[in-house]
Amino acid sequence: MRKLIGFCLRLKRSQEGAVAVLVAVAMVALTGIVGIAVDVGRAQLLQSKLSSALDAAGLAAASTVSTTNLSADVDKYLNVNFQNYMGSHITSSSVTVNSNNTVITLTASATLPTTFMRIFGHDAINVSALSEITRAVSGLELALVLDNTGSMEGSKLADLKTAAHDLVDILFGDGNAHDLWVGVVPFSQTVNIGASHAGWMDAAYTSSLNWGPASWMGCVDARENGGDVTDAPPSTQPLKAYYWPDDSNNDWIRSGGGYRTPLTTARGPNKYCPQEVLPMTSDRDAIDNAIDAMQAVGYTHINLGAVWGWRMLSPQWRGLWGGDMDANALPLDYNTPRMNKAVIIMTDGENTVSNNIHTAYWYPSDGKLGTTNTSQAKTQLDQRLSQVCTSMKSNNIIVYTIAFGSPGSTVQNLLRNCATQPDYYFDSPTGAELQAAFRAIGDSLSNLRISR
After folding, report:
1. Around Cβ 106, how many Cβ atoms within 10 Å?
2. CA-CA-CA-CA torsion sign (436, 442, 444, 449)
3. Looking at the structure, do residues 49 and 160 belong to the same domain, yes or no?
4. Integer CA distances (angstroms), 330 to 180, 248, 306, 373, in order
5. How large is the angle between the packed helices 155-172 and 284-292, nearest 10 degrees?
6. Alpha-carbon distances, residue 383 vs 18, 303, 371, 403 (angstroms)
7. Are residues 61 and 170 in the same domain?
8. Is there a single domain that holds both residue 255 and residue 374?
9. Which of 67, 101, 134 is the last residue of a domain?
10. Which of 154, 222, 293, 311 has the smallest number of CB atoms closer than 10 Å to its CB?
11. Of 278, 360, 288, which is closest to residue 321 (Cα–Cα)?
């Protein structure tokens, strides 16, 4: 019996030792499992933080994709948003852009020091993230109000055409733009609304003028009695034809009878009448063709270009412009949801008034600007531009302005105050800077979304 009891006691002690070993092994395993769970959870938090930081960096950098070093901007915004989260650090990042600058793909990797897993020889966990930003323009009515005066002749006009084409390329991208409508308003000392809009005119006045072998090309005088700063439709105040009479500054009728043909925009009743406006359209080729057709003639009345840009965007002119605008009931009402209205006003010089130049306000001596003094008349043009800009902004039209070729502080300040906000004004002394300005505006008007 004693032997049996002794055997049982020895067996009990042996079992207790085995259990202790098993418990010790289990504790090590449980600690490892908990440690792995903690580090995996931290890695998941890190991956989420890296993804959100990459999305934010992509949206911020892609808003200026046409004008900046995209990789440098992505790294800058990524580091600002990531901030070495939980002691981790970014190990790599990359940016690729498709040929149309419409899809930006971003990747990033980061490493996180482990806490418990280092016990098992794993000192760090690596995570990665991918983001895809898609740029598309949707819901935009845009009027390009572009200086076509004589001072733009040569390389300046060529630079303007290049910059405007770049803008069109940015806006239309790969052709998937929706509800994008662009019009072109060339201006000099008058604006050419197109002879097809004879119904807007005071027909009796037009027919009373001697056009010789030529005919009215479509340019119009400035409205009188304050009508030159409003978006009132022609039903409220018919327009009068722009007409430069035969005089010492424009000798087109021979003293013995007959005409000094050919009568063109260089001589005759249509002298210095610029290229016809293009009403808003979604036809990219038509827009590019209108830009290519621009010619440099005449003197500068920026306010007239601006007010006709406004009239192209004003719902009071719905059903009047024809073409795509009538087919799509454009312009839409102000503040229509998911539709923006914008105008870009670009000039290379100040408003000009001369006793030798007949404009949409006639000669200064005719007093149509409320004065016969040329300096005061110029001031009137400046003030009327400011009035038009204020009216457009009050109707939530986004106004961008560009001073090209260092035109002087007066017009630079005028355009700066005209713009919707300070960074919507661009000072562009050179052709390269003009191109950069148009690209920046294109970026500003592009909508961004995270597509992946």
Report:
1. 24
2. negative
3. no
4. 11, 44, 18, 40
5. 170
6. 99, 9, 14, 17
7. no
8. yes
9. 134
10. 154
11. 278
Judging by beta carbons within 10 Å of its beta carbon (0-12, 13-18, 19+), is residue 375 exposed, middle or buried? exposed
Q: Is the pLDDT of residue 62 over 80?
A: no
Q: By the 8 A CB rule, do 164 and 144 touch?
A: yes
- In a shared domain, residues 121 and 150: no
Would you say 341 and 331 are in contact if contact means Cβ atoms under 8 Å apart?
yes
- Looking at 112, 134, 156, the residue that finishes a domain is 134
Segment holding 443, helix H or strand E: helix 431-445
The CB-side HSE value for 151 (13 A sphere, CA atoms) comes to 18
| CATH code where residue 444 lies | 3.40.50.410
Q: Are residues 341 and 232 in the same domain?
A: yes
Under the banding of pLDDT at 50, 70 and 90, the label for residue 84 is confident
Quick one: tokens of 169? 């390329």
Instruction: Please write the tens of the pLDDT for every residue from 178-221.
Output: 899 999 999 999 999 999 999 999 999 999 999 999 999 999 99
> How many domains does the structure of the chain reveal?
2
Helix and strand numbers (H, E) in the chain are: 10, 12
- Statement to judge: residues 147 and 183 lie in one domain: yes
What domain range is 98 assigned to? 2-134
Same domain, 188 and 54: no
Q: Residue 335's closest CA among 318, 317, 313, 354?
A: 313
Whether 326 and 230 map to the same domain: the answer is yes
Residue 127 host element (H or E): strand 124-136
Rounded Cα gap, residues 340 and 447, in angstroms: 11
List Cβ neighbours of 426 (8 Å cut-off, separation of 6 or more): 400, 401, 402, 403, 433, 437, 440, 441
CA-to-CA distance for 42 and 171, rounded, in angstroms?
Answer: 42
Q: C-alpha 32: how far from its chain's center?
A: 57
Mean pLDDT of the 7-13 span = 55
What Å distances lie between residue 292 and 27, 128, 148, 331, 437, CA to CA?
A: 80, 47, 12, 25, 19
Helix (H, G, I), strand (E, B), or coil: what is residue 195?
helix
DSSP-derived secondary structure for 312-359:
HH-GGGTTTS-HHHHHTTPSPPTT-TT-EEEEEEEESS-----TT--B
